[in-house]
Design brief:
With 387 residues, this protein is of the alpha/beta class. Helices cover 50% and strands 17% of the residues. The protein is built from 17 helices and 11 strands. The strands form 2 sheets. A 6-stranded parallel beta sheet has the order 5-2-1-6-7-8, sandwiched between helices.
């Protein structure tokens, strides 16, 4: 069996690639990094290190293709695949779409079997977003997309820590626990579960939102607020006894929404929050805030980890003050090496924060949430970081 996975970064190799390997697939990684592609092809394998058991896991039966240098080979791999997955960050789905589309067109031309394409990205409707990017590229072929592929959405979660050893070689450490939920009704064959270790669920949305709001939203809030307070890693924030209660309070706002919206038991949600924080504090783990907070335009979007639960809380008249603070801190995120941070900062300097909240956060002016975000931004921008 052949799997094609777009994105040979830490998540690609340390999470999705490992599950595909354990499921019996030969895995072809498609990436734009010449160094990673060359390393995979030269070694024919890579090692993972389990943070929980301290075991070394060897991932072999793999190869890699550079989609910039050889797009034809990447498209041909898609044309021959039994499953296609991605882990490239949702903003990059549009960049891999042309090669993927060419492969799907080849499948259609030869009448190949329909396959599942799973976008394993931290975004609501991740695989649907990928399908939309494919459809944009060729209006004539768009009606045939569902004839050659199914696009079940996913929810993904695993701690993956890429590091360098003393000799400069990359080391990927992974947590033994993970979550890959796949939208069962939208798969090609709901009776066949292709990936071992994945959970195929009938109602994916509630699991996506639980993970996106509590884990990813809590992560982002911790990063944006922690940076204002001078911290450089998520772990420093969580060890700050003044800030930790606010992290929990923020996640609690999302938990209240999930309890009402989906009927999750609050005790179960609180246990999930405890699990998340404990995992973030895994010994040896160091999560740089600049990494967690990168791409702020994406992370502050109306369907994303901070704004989406905040809008939900506002609709149900639930508390959202902590989330508003997180959004405001996100608007202040300043990293000259992050293109989205630069764009956001430039736009605010030229047009003001009111216009930025409307444009990037997607919150209507005049609402209580809008007023709260603007007020928090003005407070933080003035140097008052009190919570």
């Amino acid at each position: 069996m052949k799997a094609v996975h777009f994105g040979a970064g830490a998540i690609g190799r340390g999470f999705i690639g490992e599950l595909l390997h354990q499921s019996g697939y030969h895995v072809t990684f498609v990436d734009v990094s010449e160094a990673i592609v060359n390393q995979i092809n030269a070694q024919g394998s890579y090692d993972l290190y389990d943070l929980d058991t301290h075991e070394q896991i060897v991932i072999d039966d793999i190869d890699a293709i550079n989609s910039i240098q050889d797009p034809a080979a990447a498209a041909a791999a898609v044309a021959q695949a039994d499953i296609v997955t991605t882990a490239v960050m949702v903003a990059n789905l549009k960049h891999i779409a042309p090669v993927m589309l060419e492969g799907l067109k080849q499948r259609f031309a030869k009448g190949a079997k329909r396959i599942n394409i799973l976008a394993c990205e931290n975004a609501l409707g991740n695989s649907t977003i990928l399908r939309e990017e494919l459809a944009k590229l060729n209006a004539d072929f768009a009606p045939h997309l569902d004839e050659v592929a199914a696009f079940p959405c996913t929810a993904v979660d695993r701690v993956v820590l890429p590091e360098r050893d003393a000799e400069g070689h990359e080391v990927i450490r992974i947590s033994g626990t993970f979550e890959l939920d796949v939208e069962l009704p939208r798969t090609v064959d709901p009776s066949h579960q292709e990936i071992k270790g994945a959970s195929y669920v009938d109602d994916l949305q509630k699991f996506i939102e639980r993970k996106l709001f509590l884990l990813n939203g809590g992560h982002a809030w911790t990063g944006y607020i922690g940076l204002l307070h001078g911290h450089t890693t998520i772990q420093e924030v969580l060890r700050d006894q003044e800030l930790l209660p606010y992290v929990r309070e923020t996640m609690g706002e999302s938990a209240a929404l999930l309890e009402v919206r989906y009927g999750f038991a609050r005790a179960d949600l609180d246990a999930y929050i405890d699990f998340i924080i404990k995992r973030w504090l895994t010994p040896g783990m160091s999560d740089p805030i600049f990494r967690v907070c990168r791409n702020p335009i994406q992370k502050l979007g109306p369907k994303e980890r901070l704004t989406s639960p905040t809008l939900g809380c506002e609709d149900l008249a639930l508390p959202f003050h902590r989330h508003a603070q997180g959004i405001a801190a996100g608007l202040l995120f300043d990293n000259p090496e992050d293109a989205q941070s630069v764009e956001l900062k430039t736009f605010i300097a030229q047009n003001g924060v009111v216009a930025a909240v409307e444009k990037y956060v997607g919150v209507a002016s005049g609402t209580e949430l809008f007023k709260e975000v603007v007020a928090c931004y003005q407070q933080f921008a003035a140097g008052d970081y009190s919570l």
